[in-house]
Amino acid sequence: MSSTDTGTAVTDPAARARFLAAVRFDDRGLVPVIAQAHGTGEVLMMAWANATALEETLATGRVVYFSRSRNALWRKGETSGQVQYLVDLRLDCDGDTVLALVEQTGVACHTGRRSCFFQVLREGELTAITAPEADPEALYGHKHGH
Question: Under the GO molecular function aspect, what terms does this record hold (predicted)?
Answer without folding.
Answer: magnesium ion binding; phosphoribosyl-AMP cyclohydrolase activity; phosphoribosyl-ATP diphosphatase activity; zinc ion binding
